[in-house]
Amino acid sequence: MATQADVRRIALSLPATEEAPNHFAFSVRNKGKLKGFEAETAPVMHMSLAERPEITEEYMNDPSLRPAAHRDFWRHLIRQGSWAALLVVVSLAGGTLGFHVFSRQLWVDAFLNASMLLGGMGPVGDLGPTAGKLFAAGYALYAGLMFLVIAGLLVTPVFHRVLHRFHVEGK
């Protein structure tokens, strides 16, 4: 196994490498920014999860000990899912009310038409007078836009996690 002196010698042989002044860690300049890593964790990278000293049974069973990024991902996913669910409920309520008022449909039929349009299937049955048909046309366009917005809300946390996973950075 490599000693600290070996790790220090290898790390400092890399171009633009700097050693941390207060502990055993090194940084490399990348696009003008210092990208640091802890040299103390380097020897355990080849070990299995069970052999790593920081991975214990308590760590595996206690969510509060897991990395903050893991908790942040789930919190972000739940928050975005909540916004998406709120948009669906508000859109469904507005569509139901619109079909009830403009198409003069019963509440159940209005809910069915609003659900079908919001789900991308199209209206069911007679849409009634011209006002109902115009409302259905406008609601169909709105429902298509909401589909894209809701899909974006739900995919954003996952895409953000993938970018972090592959260390993709903005300029």
Instruction: Give me the secondary-structure category.
Output: mainly alpha
Distance between the termini: 39 Å
Number of distinct beta strands: 3
Assign an overall shape. elongated
Largest sheet: number of strands, sense, barrel closure:
3 strands, antiparallel
Description:
The chain is mainly alpha-helical and 171 residues long. The chain has two domains: 4-65, no CATH class; 68-165, Helix Hairpins (Orthogonal Bundle), CATH 1.10.287. Helix content is 57%, strand content 9%. A hairpin with a 5-residue loop joins strand 1 and strand 2. It is elongated, with a radius of gyration of 28 Å. Residues 39-53 have low confidence and may be disordered.
Key features?
171 residues, 2 domains, single chain, 57% helix, Helix Hairpins, three-stranded antiparallel sheet, elongated, mainly alpha
Write the layout of secondary structure elements.
Blueprint (H helix, E strand, L loop, with lengths): L3 H10 L3 E3 L5 E6 L2 E6 L18 H5 L6 H35 L4 H12 L11 H36 L6
Antiparallel strand pairs: 1-2, 2-3
Summarize the structure.
The chain has 171 residues and is mainly α. The protein is built from 5 helices and 3 strands. It has 2 domains: 62 residues, no CATH class; 98 residues, Helix Hairpins (Orthogonal Bundle), CATH 1.10.287.
